[in-house]
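Before relying on records like the one below, remember that each one covers exactly one chain. Contacts with other chains, cofactors or solvent are not represented anywhere in the record.
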Amino acid sequence: MITRRDWLGAAGLAGLATAAGGALAQGGNARQESVEPDAIDAEPPPHRLRFAVIGLDHYHIMSMTEAVISGGGEVVAVFSTNTEGLKDRQLADFHAKFGAVNVARSEDEILQDPSIALVAAAPIPDQRAPLGIRVMQAGKDYLADKPAITTLAQLDAVRAAIAETGRKFAIMYSERLGVRSAVQAGRLIQAGAIGRVVQVVNLAPHRVNAPSRPAWFWDKARYGGILTDIGSHQIDQYLYYTSSTRARVVAAQTANLNWPQQPAFEDFGDLLVAGDGGTGYIRVDWFTPDGLGVWGDGRLFVLGTEGYIESRKYIDPAGREGGNHLLLVDQEAIRYFDCSRGSLPFGRQFVDDLVNRTETAQSQAQALLAAELVLTAQRDATAPVLD
């Protein structure tokens, strides 16, 4: 039996967490820095692009729509795919945020409009890949909420459609692309601030909020399983921060430990991964206690040969206000970065990529490799508790 201590030791997490905790305790001695917005943020985006939204089942679609608008997108149509009686509320919330956007009568109305270049989508997860294939076959690019793909068969179909159509199938891994401290971590790593990356550790607890959840939330066949779903964020970060282009799942575990009344649900998962740029450990769960104050204490650790980074994305239990806290420890000092004003460049970069057919905002191969890894981990996962 592999114990939790064995897992943590294998991942190097115990020592890294202790070291980072020491840095937090000495926060008063750390050099304090504030990350300022990029100068380009004050300039109008150079491109204009008409896009539509299909599927409002996960409210990540709000930040996805904001990101595309920030990059020069104009949302011209919306269509809700909801079948659980929530369509009117979803559309009302969308209109409250984005104004009187035209409500399409059908998906085809959007797909057949030649002026629409992009569809952004967040329907129920198992619908996202088939929708993306239809979008690409209609000659448009596609931006899906994660998990954009819920089975390996869907992944094969998506790759075939990309090859056939030449369109983009982008995935909004928002815990990196939409979190300022995660963006700053990437910039520091790319600048060589911690040397060569050795390992990425990502802890991603979430709160269930059971009364507010729709029926599909509890059904693994609809959301893909815990590693496929919220684990996709963390695998994306692992690949990006290690610059891995090849990787394999070493071991994975999933379980339903606390919801016997929802037998198709998973509330715990973790995995070990190894790639050509470093190793990784990921833990995801639905055990955030109500006393925390936010939906989860997401923590990112990046270990390098010359230092390490810790990002407290959403809260600092030690007392600093807000989120987007980042600590860097190198050979010279402890540095604390307040990233709350930092830039989120994805939207501008993504629209530019659509216009110029480049891959600055996201590598297509890396986005799909992240999906492949979590789908493989989900398929091969074992139980963490022996009967």
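Confidence is low (pLDDT under 50) at residues 1-27.
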